[in-house]
Each structure stands twice: as C-alpha cells, then as structure tokens.
Write a structure and sequence with these properties.
Blueprint (H helix, E strand, L loop, with lengths): L2 H142 L1 E5 L5 E6 L11 E8 L7 E8 L5 H10 L5 H20 L1
Antiparallel strand pairs: 1-2, 2-3, 3-4
Helix pairs in contact: 2-3
Protein name: Kinetochore protein SPC25
Keywords: Cell cycle, Cell division, Centromere, Chromosome, Coiled coil, Kinetochore, Mitosis, Nucleus
Main location: nucleus
Length: 236
Amino acid sequence: MDADAVVLLRQNLGKARNTFDEWARERTKWIESVQVDHHKQSTQLSVQIQAAECLEKELQQQGQVANQRSHRNKQETDLVRADIEQLRQKEQAMPLAWSSVTAQISSEQSRLQRCVEIMQHNDAIFQDARKNLDRFLDLYGTTLGLDISPVAEASGITLTFTRIDKTDPERRFVAKVVVQQRRDAEDRYCVPECAPMVTGLDDLVRALNESRGLGLSRFVVNLRRAFAEVARAANT
C-alpha cells in the first residue's frame, strides 16, 4: 500500500472516529435527557399518585359523611312519618274527644247552675237573718240600752250596754267584736276587749263562729245575760 492510500485511510478512520464520537455524545445526551424526562415523569407520577390517594381518602370520608347523613335523614323521615301517623290517629279520635269535652262542659254548666241556685238561696236566708237582726237590734237599743258603733281600726263593732246594773243604770258594759279575715279559711269572730270580763266568753264566741255570723242576735242576748250576772255578783 502506498503512502497516499495510508494517508487517505487514516483520514477516513479519523472522520469515522469523529463521527462515532459525535454519535456517542449525542447518544449520551439523549440518554441523559431520557433519564431526566423519566425522572420528571416519575416525580409527576408520584405526585399524581399521592394526589389520587388523597382524593380517594376524601371521597371515602365524603362517602361516610353521606352515609351518615342518609342514615340521619332516614331516621328523621321515620320520625316525621310516625308524627304524621299520630296526628292522623288524633284526628280520627277528635270527634270522640270533642263529644267528651262537650259532655263535660254541659256537666260543669249544670254544676255551676246548681251553685248559683244555692248561693241565691243562701243569700235569701242571709237577707232574712239580716232583717231579723236589724229589728232585734232596734228593739234592744230602745228598750234595753244597746248602742252599736263601728270599730275604727278594724272590721267590727263595739257593743255598749246600759240599763244592766240596777244600782247604776248608766254604767257601761262594753265588748268589741272584730272579724278576722283569713285567705285560706272562713272569716272568724273574736272579742279582743270585754269590760268587765265575763265567764264563758270563749264559749259564746265559739257558738257565734259556728253559726257563721247568723247567731249574732243570740250572741248579744247571751252576752247581756253574762254582763247582768257580773253586775248582780258585784251588788251582792
């Protein structure tokens, strides 16, 4: 082989080596770029997988919440249905209940009417007793010296008797009769002052209270008798 051929061969080999080296560098760059892309894709894929897992958890949680809400809604629906059924039953029973209420109202009205009649009857009795008492007091005042005056500081009267003591007809025998008003019970009579004091005063007051005030004339008569006994005892 001559020298020119050798030179040409070396030149061709150099070109081939350069071409191969260039190809090798490009191949290396391509592999590196592929590796970089693969790393990026792997990273993105990992991020997407994590995001998908988070989304799956959220969906599971939302599904659980939805199931719980659905269960509560079902319970509320059942309660509403039960309430509607109760209302329907009450509606069906309402005519019977209304009939019972009407009968009860009628019974109470009859009872009220009886109470009114009893009150009217008692009022008539009281008015008759009041008239008899007024006539009695007028007679007692003119013939036996009884004076009646109201008590200023309380609800009551003061009974002042004269013409009892034969040795002193103007001597005054005084008793104060007061009405004690009570909220939880009937009014009661009491005699806080009595001059002179007489025997059996408590019994006289008890009888007056038992008569509910209708025996006031009897109380006055018996009180005068008690005063007369005191006067006779003092004169003997």
